[in-house]
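Researcher: Please translate sequence to structure tokens.
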Amino acid sequence: MDWSKAKTILIVAFIITNLFISIVIINNRPKGEPTLSKDFIANVEKLLEEKNIYIETKIPEKIPYLNSMIVEFEKANSNLLNRSYFNNRGYIQHGESLSEIVSGLESILIINDRLIIYENKRESIKYDPLNMDKAIEIAQDFLKTGGFNTSDMKLTYAKEEGGVFYLEYSKVYENTFVERAYTNFQIDKRGVKRFERLWLNVKELGDTRIYISTAPKSLLNLLGMKELYNKTITHISLCYYFEPEKHEYIEEPGEAKQGKAVPAWRIQFEDGYKIFIDEY
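Model: Translation complete:
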């Protein structure tokens, strides 16, 4: 056999195959999308305003896609949390799907090895006066004490009500939100009053592009959601969205450890409320 000639044939076949695949991918991309026209966007805004849903941010006007992503829940460790927050003085009790650490008037509840809920019922005042900047500093110190990585966190909502500061942090991966992961705080003059964390880690990022409906078209879904009437949209962005109940683990969502995060539109309102639309 002429191996040199066979090698040349294989190389040419490989080039032709790659060219064919590239043509298929290009032809499958959405083109001339009518839902991105100025008239369509203006009509969407008008229809939403008729329901008293107002938009105070720019509506994305690009063909939306993200690469495939596999995520996994961050696992909570009761022994590490006990050591970090209570110097190993907390009493740990394990149940079937939850663990609880109790140290005086403080406690940490861990549900399904992933959801962390800390509560502080002490009455002693530690911070007076207290403002938003100080509340954010307290939250950062609390995360540092627990050994949590803060490089993938972004503060996406903050408010003060009745002397309590509410902070909501979201997960980001290369400037893109990964939902539904959250780290939430309630902070008052005692310090951290309540802390909740359900976090996701990126396990694998694929090469496959997943396209979804455009932002203007997806916004039309809001017209049938009465709970959104009289609200104002402050942020619209493409995100990775993982919800076991909806996507992969219908029978036992509480047992899901990892799964595929899909592209979705993340729509946040002025009051911090968020919805996700993964329409294809």
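Researcher: Any highlights?
Model: Confidence is low (pLDDT under 50) at residues 5-30.
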